[in-house]
Every structure is written in structure tokens, then in C-alpha cells.
Amino acid sequence: MGPLSVQEINLILDTAESMKAISARDIKKVPTLRGKSIVNFFYEPSTRTRTSFDVAAKRLSADTLSLSASTSSMVKGETLLDTARNLQAMRPDVIVLRHPSSGAPHMLAKEVEAGIINAGDGINEHPTQALLDLYTIREKMGRINGLKTVIIGDISHSRVARSNIIGLIKMGAEVTVSGPPTMIPVGIEGLGVRVVPDPVKAVRKKDVVMLLRIQLERQSKVLFPSIREYASYFGLSRKIFQSANEGAIVMHPGPLNRGVEISSEVADGPYSVILDQVANGVAVRMAVLYLLIGGAKGDNVDQGR
Amino acid sequence: MITWIRGGDLVDPVNETVEQLDVVVEKGKISKMLPPGVFQGNGSGIKRVEASGKMVIPGLVDMHVHLREPGHEYKETIASGARAAAAGGYTAIACMPNTVPPNDCRAVTEFILEQAERARSVRVYPIAAISKGQDGETLTDFGELREAGAVGLSDDGFPVVNSELMRRALEYASFYGLRVISHCEDRSLSGDGVMHEGGISTRIGLAGIPDASEDIMVYREIALARLTGRHVHIAHVSTAASVDLIRRAKEDGIRVTAETAPHYFTLDHRRVIGYDTLAKVNPPLRTPEDVEAIKTGLREGVIDAIATDHAPHSSLEKDLEFDRAAFGMIGLQTALPLTLQLVRDGVLGLAQAIGKLSWAGATALGIPGGRLMEGGSADLAIIDLNYEYPLETDRILSKSKNSPFIGQVLKGITELTMVGGKIVWEKA
Ligand SMILES: [Zn+2]
Ligand SMILES: [Zn+2]
Predict the structure, then answer these.
(1) What single DSSP character describes residue B333?
(2) CA distances from B295 to A141, B227, B240, B303, B306 (A)
């Protein structure tokens, strides 16, 4: 999200709006990207994001090819760059890359001619998630500029958090981050956010409350002592949410750990926009694909190349 | 055969002087150091080397390099590393034991010395492992290693976790006059970090290595040196807090010496933005404040020596995603120009800077070299302080080209390197 300008973000969001109209039709398909080929290259599994990109590409009539680490020759020890060069030989127009290493899309972008869309790299960024979150906020609240937002959870290890912080601040929102101090990275203030560890205080008078998924398996040893403790001190209950501003919304990139970072009551409540986020994901990804290969070729929707 | 090095400015790091002197080399030794015009040599038995306008310095001594032989000869061999060292102005290098197999027994130490002999280049001093297999559990046979030719002990790269083992290593090594060198890192705190933990790592989404990971172990080594009354040498200091700890320890009379490497006073963590794996090194590039503290530490003598921590890796290990790439960068041919920048910036005097690269390392390791005297071995280099050139890969004599300084314009170069009176490098 770094190098994207406010104008570019607005262009993507505006384009997504017309793309959303397509998804509302009976025949959810337009010929815009006919003849273009898009490779979905998912080095780590993510059914949600991959499906979303796949649906987006198909609605624009592009040909798609899905690769995962287990089906590619990487299991035989081929490096990312080798794989990239092989992909290049197939001459795709766009490669959508999900990779566990931060910076992997930058590396790939230097090697291949195709446009690269970062579908999540390590703990670095997840730009299309941030764009769909921005879209959802704009759709529900009518604006982004001037809103008070809070992101709660593992800020340190979340690419969603990092991308959203950058995007929200760029679009003029105020951002507070919250969560156990073990999950707040050093120097996060440098990105322009406020740190309020206690969610009870952090949620007060906010317009947007964004939760992150807690990785139960990986983290409940050192970063927090138990799921029970996390849920009781850092989970979003209706009681905590009530102190937010009138008309505030609750967001979550999914999948949810119900009863851990979010109570079912909040997740399914009227202020929850979690399912809208999923629907908007397709529209935003259609917009990104369209702008990348329908428009000027070779640009990367990502923080640099 | 007599070699007559004429008209150069001779740098003496011990007395911190620079003086125009002719150097006469006979039978591998310096027979005379005289003001110009005094020595008059003629005839066929005399080889003249013109050095006017150049500096004649003691051959540099690098107490911390990684030669990848045995085991990873595709990255570096003892011969290729020694050649790169000679081109960098070095006449002696000490190689760390993390080869495959590691240098934890007589056979490997002897093998290294044989290969060095065969290379007919700079002097190579093996540093053996502290623990067998560098597993941090059992001490190696210090006496036997010493006899085979090892000059120091280190588990560099595999820091000793067990404090008692480290204590015993300090105690036992002193009996054999072996130096113990510690790579200070608390691995449990480093975790899967790949760069300095701070504002930049947070911004670009890479896992961080906190400075405390180094500081904690520096403090432990100082505490153990105090406890045992023995000498400990701290490798590659990278943090401001380490500099402070070492400063206070020295003030308290604890026997501690320290080195840093040129990248820690030249680059900071901003260099990692863009995910260039050539800037991935352990300890990681720190903050601009740390860089300043390292310079101050050098100027004040808190940090004794400048070593390279020359760590060759091929593109197989470096052309990877940042978190998968190997730590380390080469440094034998860039240490001199990068250190000379400190002289131009007024951080160090010329003689002081050359001393950090030569005399200090030799002293900390307890090996000969690092100064020029009549009767001493003719291990020296002639350098041109003002020669400017872009660092290009074909200039690099290491088998690996993993330098973050490639493409950068460097100033200062080695024109000639002589070991025991024999020229081992001459710039074309
Ligand atoms: Zn080390
Ligand atoms: Zn080392």
C-alpha cells in the first residue's frame, strides 16, 4: 500500500463500485479481460483469497491457472526465482502471488515482465485486503477521511494490520492499535498510529472496530498465556463495543475464532460488516485486475516493484 | 635478493606516526628502515619498488574471516579467500571453525594449514571450535588443537548457550594461551528475526532481532571474564549498548577486547528497505545511533579492532526470499577503503585506522604481525589512499560476490602486498 497515492486508491475504489454492479447482475460475466491469462500462485494456502481472485478473474473472462507450492516443482527444491522464470515462459499477464516471505513479490517483480499482485507476503502486506476494507468502510460510512478506527489483535504478525494502517492513514482516518503488548511491534508509532493496549479504552468513541484473527496454534505459548485469558481481556464483546460511536461497524478479515477475538453476538450483530467484506473482496480484485491489465500494462498494484 | 621500497610514507600504528622512510627487505625480513637518500642500492641484486606518494603500512591482520573449506568450497576455498585477503592488503587472516566438518579436531586444523601452505599467499591462522561439533556441550581438546596450530577458540555462529561451558572455556583456554572469541547472541531472543528489530522492521514487515539479543550475551561474557579473571574477545560489536558495556568493563580493569566490522560503521538498517539480501547479516545492520556509537567506540579505543567477518555465500544462498537467504557478506577487499572513510570523516587518524586493521587484531589474537620494525618479518602493504574506483564483481577475488557495496565508488586501494618478503599481490 506504500507507494499507492490517494488518487490511485480512490480510482481503485471507484472502479470497484462499477465492478460490484456486475456481480449484482443475472449474468455475472463481462468480456473485459478475454484472452488475458492470470496465474494464481499460492505458495501458502489461502482458500479465501485464492477463491476471491479466481472468481474476480472469471467474471472478467480472463483465463486463470492456479499453482500452489505443492503442485509446483518447488517441492523438488526449485527456488522462487526459477519458478518465476518458468512462469515467465508461459507469458502470463498477471501473477497473483501469496508467499510466506515478506518482500517475495518485490523479488518476483524484478524478474518477470508480468504484473505482480501481492496477495499477501509474510507479515508484510496484504494490499487487496486493505483495499477491500477501505471499500467496505467507504460504502458503509460514506467516507474514510476523518473516521476514528481501531485495529485489535496481533499487530506484529499481521500483514492485514500493516496494510490497513498504511491505507487508512493515507486516506485521512485516525488509527489506534490495540492488543497485548507482546503483539504490538516496536516503533509502530512511526507509522502514525496511537497505541492503546486495553481494548476497553481503545474502542471508545471509534467509528470502525477492526479485529484480527488470532493464530491459536502458533501463539498461545509466549505471546499470551491462554486462549481463555486472551478472550477475557482482548476479545471484543458487545459490552466493549457499546462504547464505540453510534453507527460504528465491526470488521474482521476472517476466518473467525468465535469466542476468542470476537464474540458470536458481535460477529453476527447488525453492525457487523464481515460478510460484506467478502463480497467486496471480489469487486476490489476485479478492479485491481482490470486496472492492471485492462489499463496500462506492467504496473504493479503493490508497494513497489 | 634485496627489495628496496622507496619514498613511501610509512605508517606506524603503535607510535601513531606517519613518516617518509625507505624500507629494505632482505631474506624475508625488514633489514632497514631509513630516511630517503640514505640507502643507496644499485646493481642487479636489488629490486626497486617505487612508493612515493603512497603509504607503506604493516600488512593488515583480520582476526575474523570465514573460509568455507572444508565443506563448502563452492563458496570460498582457503586459496581463494587468501587471494582476496592479499588483494585487500591483508597479510594474515584467522579463519572461523564453522566449516563442514567444523574445525574441532587436530585433523581439520592441520588440513587448513596444509591448504594455506599450498596457496602460497597470506598467513592463515585457524581458530578452532570451543565445543565438539559446535554443539555447545563438550569442550574440544584445546591442547591438541593448540599443538596442531590453532590460535584461538570460538563457536562463532553457534553461540555457546551454556554459561558454565563458557566459563570453563575461558579458564581452560588460558592455560594454553588460546584466545576465546564470543559471538554474542541470545538465540532465543533473536527467534526467527532476519534484521534489526525497530521502526524499519515494523514498517517493511520483517521479523526483528532486538539489540538486547547481543547486549545480554556481551554482559554475560564480561561477567564471566570478571569471574575467571581471564581474557575474552567480543566479536562483531553492533550495538550502542554493547559499546557501553565494554567501555565500563575496560574501566573496571576486566580483560576484554572487542572488534567490529566495517558494515557496522558504514551501513544502517535502512539499507534493508527493498529486501536486498546482500544487506542481510548477523548481527544485523542496526540504527544510525548504533552506527555513531560504534564510531565513538572505535575512536575511544573501546573497540580495539576492525575485522571483516568475511562471510562468503553464493547466489544459491542469496538469491532467495529475504527470510530464507543466508546471513553474511564478504569484506576482505572493502575493509580498507571503508575504514579509510573514517579517516576522511575525521573519526580516526590514519595511523589509528591502520592500527585497528592490523596491530589491534594481531594483539587481541596473540599472533605476530601488525607493525613494521627492523628485524621483523616483511609483512606489509603499499596502499594508494586517493585511488577511486567503482566496486565491480570482476574486481572481487572471493569465489562469492555477496557484497552490498557492489556498484559503489570506493576510495583507497592496495597496490602491493608482501608476506615474508614475497609479493603475493600486485595491482595490475
Ligand atoms: Zn559471528
Ligand atoms: Zn563470523
Answers:
(1) T
(2) 53, 29, 10, 9, 11
Rounded CA separation B26/B32 (Å): 9
Alpha helices in A187-273 (DSSP H): 199-202, 216-219, 227-234, 238-241, 264-267
CA of B62 to the centre of ligand 2 (A): 11
Side chain identity at residue A173, one-letter code: A
How many A from CA of B390 to the centre of ligand 2? 26
Helix (H) or strand (E) holding B152: strand B152-154
Q: Nearest CB to A186: which of B198, B275, B322? A: B198
Write out pLDDT tens, residues A31-55.
999 999 999 999 888 889 999 999 9
**Confidence at residue A219, expressed as pLDDT on a 0 to 100 scale:** 64
Q: Which residue of A has its CA nearest to B275?
A: A103
Task: Report the candidate in A76, A131, A129 with the shortest Cα–Cα distance to residue A98.
Answer: A129
Mark yes or no for CB contact B204/A124 under 8 Å: yes
pLDDT digits (tens, 9 = 90+) for A146-195: 999 999 999 999 999 999 999 999 999 999 999 999 999 999 999 999 99
- Between A168-182, A288-302, B40-54, the lowest mean confidence (pLDDT) is in A288-302
Tell whether A165 is within 8 A of chain B (Cβ). Answer: no
Whole-number pLDDT of residue A218: 67
Q: Is A183 in contact with A153 (CB distance < 8 Å)? A: yes
pLDDT band at B390 (very low <50, low <70, confident <90, very high): very high
Question: Smallest Cβ distance to B205: which of A80, A107, A159?
Answer: A159
Report the relative pairing of strands B60-65 and B90-95 from DSSP bridges. parallel
Strand stretches in chain A, DSSP E: 37-42, 63-68, 94-99, 115-121, 148-152, 174-178, 194-195, 208-211, 249-251
A97 contacts chain B (CB < 8 A): no
- Please state, in angstroms and rounded to a whole number, the distance separating the CA atoms of residues B269 and A199: 32
Indicate the length of chain B as a whole number.
428
Q: In sequence order, what E strands does A153-267 have? A: 174-178, 194-195, 208-211, 249-251
Distance between CA atoms of residues A57 and B354, nearest Å: 62
Q: Is the preceding peptide bond at B283 cis, omega within 30 degrees of 0?
A: yes
Which residues of chain B are within 8 Å of residue A85 when distances are taken between CB atoms?
none
ipTM of the modeled complex = 0.89
CA distance B170 to A222: 33
Residue B172: count of CB within 10 angstroms of its CB: 18
Query: What cell numbers appear for B420 in the block?
Result: 615474508
